[in-house]
Design goal:
This protein is an alpha+beta fold and 753 residues long. It is 55% helix and 10% strand. The protein is globular and about 105 Å long.
């Protein structure tokens, strides 16, 4: 054994490091930090004895004072037998240290279990009281999805109840008896250590599970920059302070929360104190202005929304005053969708003012660490006034505004998140109505001498300029289209547009992705793009492979019935997401909408790939073959007179637009043909099957259908050839002793679909 010294504050061994030695403390004190919980080790303790099963340190051990240790090389548990035979007296030291450390861990596990149970009961109880107080003081309760999703800790504890008294009685037994029992008996000693190390491993793992659970509950109570119970209750306290009895009642609820928080495992105390200071500061300001005469029966959470929005926007008073008058006039209309000239002019004035105000509010909010709830409602819902939206709708929007979010990692954005992503440089602006991206737009500005070279160079990297381009050139158009009622469009949220309850028409990221998965389950190749792959090191020539890139979905602040596939790629890069806009509150069927958007994406992506030859039948593609089929269907001898008449009807319905006609056929393909129900003629079926094939499971079901059998046989032959080609290439690379690129494995998987 080797003697080693560690100065105060130095790390003796780190969490996660492999255990290659046992350290016997002969002087000083050390501290083990397990997930922030300190455990003290003194003379006679053995560092690492509880981690023997895993072979890695579960904690970081630090010298609290100058520490002296004896180090013994450790390979495995069996190797300890040599130490026990060489130094028999060390057995009782190992047993005593094992028992003491295990008992500390078991006590910590019990404390964590109690904390987890209390945290769960408290999160439900505090939120329930918050809701009751909101009702009592006429304040709209905000929803917190985390509370509804919180479940109690699973009652799975692999640590038997007899473990604690077993190690306690062993530790407290007479030292002489314990020494006589274990010394010179390496088999018994080693067996006890093995059992103790295994028990310690179980206790450590269950402690980690408890800590993870508590941290999840903690995020409901208090989270950095998020929507939490602390924010809900502190806001309720500040807003309701002038209501009789509210100050004491809500203050008591906040006291319950803060007392619980202050002792919770994993709490960021610095952030907690910052939030407490902000809360107390706001409360002090409210109390300073409190007067007995100012006592009321209760505030309306959406009261005076319009004035708050206008004040926040920073727009001139004359613009704000006119906007208020117009909103009031619009609200009083018996028919807000009237086609009368006066109503049309009113909607047009409101629309222009709305986007002007929206821009001011948006830019300020992006620099505001905590925008008010009403501002979030305005930006994400187009909400301006409770009377216009309907009080019930306003209350619902208020309850979800703080918790509403998209999922940018899945490619789903609220309007605010999308514009914030552009302002943050994470996304480039969309193309405008003239199909110009931001760079092309600036070149046009320079060509017309509105800007010079120097200004163009500056604006190319100016994030606020990019944001304004999006707001002025894309946002109004897409908002209008997704509303779906173009002739009577007005961007202000109005009750007359709401046909389904908002809570049932809210489009969520999960809803989008689940529906998209359904579509990809029928048309598996819908969002795959062809890219060239080569690896000179492996000697693989240029190979066409397929890469899936799912769209970006932007949920516009409107109640509507339509969606639009705005652009198929970003810039000139084919392997970038398309951009699709849809209303946040959809009053129509989401699956039908996404099927149509998918068809439009397929058409536009094919046009992008084919370029000017997108209708050239000598270069077969989806668009060229379908355009040729629709253009010359009258001369097609394979089509009967009845089918030709049907095609004529389809073209009339599609207003002679080939993309729209394809979209109608694609919808039938997805909803009927995939189930073996015939809706298309043989020519349309042949083309769509070639470019929008079903997955192998569906093809297997349809191969007995005479309308599909011949087409599917041709397709399967072609795919089998591709599979064989890729298999030969992969085998060739493998036989050379080199690692086969993942891209080739992925392409083989794609070919087998």
């Amino acid at each position: 054994m080797t003697s080693m010294e560690y100065k105060q504050g130095s790390v003796i061994c780190g969490e996660g490091k492999p255990m290659d030695q046992l350290l016997f403390i002969t002087g000083g004190k050390a501290e083990a930090s397990f997930k922030g919980k300190p455990f003290i080790y003194e003379q006679g303790d053995v560092i690492g004895i509880c981690e023997l099963s895993d072979g890695v340190y579960s904690s970081t051990y630090t010298a609290v004072s100058d520490v002296v240790v004896f180090s013994y090389p450790y390979r495995n548990l069996s190797a300890l037998e040599g130490l026990l035979r060489e130094k028999p007296d060390i057995a009782s030291l190992l047993i005593n240290s094992m028992c003491r450390q295990l008992l500390s861990l078991l006590q910590y596990k019990i404390a964590l279990k109690n904390e987890a149970e209390m945290a769960f009961e408290s999160v439900k109880g505090i939120y329930a009281q918050y809701g009751n107080m909101c009702t009592q003081y006429a304040f709209t309760a905000k929803k917190h999805e985390g509370v509804a999703g919180a479940d109690p800790f699973p009652e799975i504890d692999l640590v038997d109840e007899w473990i604690y008294p077993y190690y306690m009685e062993t530790k407290e037994s007479d030292p002489a008896v314990r020494k006589a029992f274990f010394n010179n008996k390496p088999g018994i000693t080693l067996g006890f250590i093995r059992k103790g190390a295994e028990d310690a491993r179980l206790v450590i793992n269950i402690c980690k599970d408890y800590i993870n659970y508590i941290n999840k509950i903690l995020q409901i109570f208090l989270r950095s920059g998020g929507h939490d119970l602390f924010a809900l209750i502190s806001e309720l306290h500040c807003v309701s302070i002038n209501i009789k009895g509210a100050d004491a009642a809500v203050g008591a609820l906040m006291a319950w929360l803060t007392k619980l928080l202050s002792g919770m495992t994993g709490l960021n105390h610095t952030y907690y104190q910052q939030r407490m200071a902000a809360y107390k500061g706001n409360l002090a300001v409210k109390r300073a202005s409190q007067t007995e005469e100012g006592m009321t029966e209760g505030p309306g959470s959406t009261a005076d929304s319009m004035n708050l929005i206008l004040e926040y926007s920073g727009r001139p008073k004359d613009i704000c005053s006119k906007f208020i008058r117009n909103v009031q006039e619009y609200t009083k209309l018996s028919d807000r969708g009237s086609a009368e000239d006066a109503v049309y002019r009113l909607r047009r004035e409101l629309t222009a003012a709305f986007y002007d105000i929206y821009q001011g509010v948006l830019i300020k909010s992006l620099k505001d660490p905590a925008p008010p709830t009403i501002i979030k409602m305005f930006l994400n819902f187009g909400y301006v006034d409770a009377a216009l939206a309907g009080q019930e709708n306003a209350d619902y929007l208020y309850s979800v505004a703080d918790s509403l979010k998209g999922d940018p990692e899945m490619g789903v954005y609220t309007a605010y998140e999308w514009l914030a992503a552009i302002y943050g440089g994470r996304k480039e602006p969309c193309r405008n109505e003239l199909d110009e991206d931001y760079a092309a737009y600036l070149r046009g500005q320079k060509a017309t001498r509105k800007i010079d070279d120097k200004e163009e160079a500056r604006l190319l990297n100016d994030l606020e300029s990019k944001l304004r381009f999006e707001i002025e050139n894309v946002f109004p158009v897409t908002n209008k289209i997704t509303c779906g009622i173009i002739s009577t469009y007005c961007p202000l949220l109005s009750s007359h547009n709401i046909q389904r309850k908002l809570e049932f028409s809210l489009v969520t990221p999960k809803l989008i992705m689940d529906t998209l998965d359904e579509i990809r389950g029928v048309d598996f190749s819908a969002y795959f793009r062809e890219v060239m792959y080569s690896d000179p090191v492996l000697g693989t020539a240029k190979e066409v492979i397929h890469v899936e890139v799912l769209p970006d979905f932007i949920l516009m602040p409107t109640v509507g019935i339509r969606g639009i596939m705005w652009q198929e790629i970003e810039g000139m890069k084919r392997a970038t997401p398309s951009r699709m806009f849809m209303p946040l509150f959809l009053q129509s069927d989401l699956k039908a909408l996404l099927i149509r958007l998918t068809s439009e994406f397929r058409w536009e992506m094919c046009k992008r790939v084919q370029g000017v030859r997108w209708t050239d039948i000598t270069d077969p593609s989806l668009t060229s073959e379908y355009s040729d089929y629709l253009q010359f269907y009258r001369n097609n001898r394979d089509l009967s007179a009845e089918v030709k008449e049907s095609i004529k009807t389809e073209l009339t319905r599609a207003r002679n637009n080939y993309k729209t006609a394809f979209s109608l056929n694609y919808t039938d393909w997805m909803q009927y043909e995939a189930n073996g129900s015939s809706r298309l003629n043989r020519t349309a079926r042949r083309i769509i099957l070639a470019y929008c094939p079903f997955p192998s499971q569906t093809r297997e079901k349809l191969k007995q259908n005479p309308q599909f059998s011949e087409l599917l046989n041709r397709y399967n032959v072609k795919q089998n050839q591709r599979v064989q080609q890729l298999s030969r290439l992969i085998n060739k690379v493998g036989q050379s002793g080199k690692k086969v690129p993942q891209e080739l494995h992925d392409e083989l998987e794609y070919a087998n679909k």
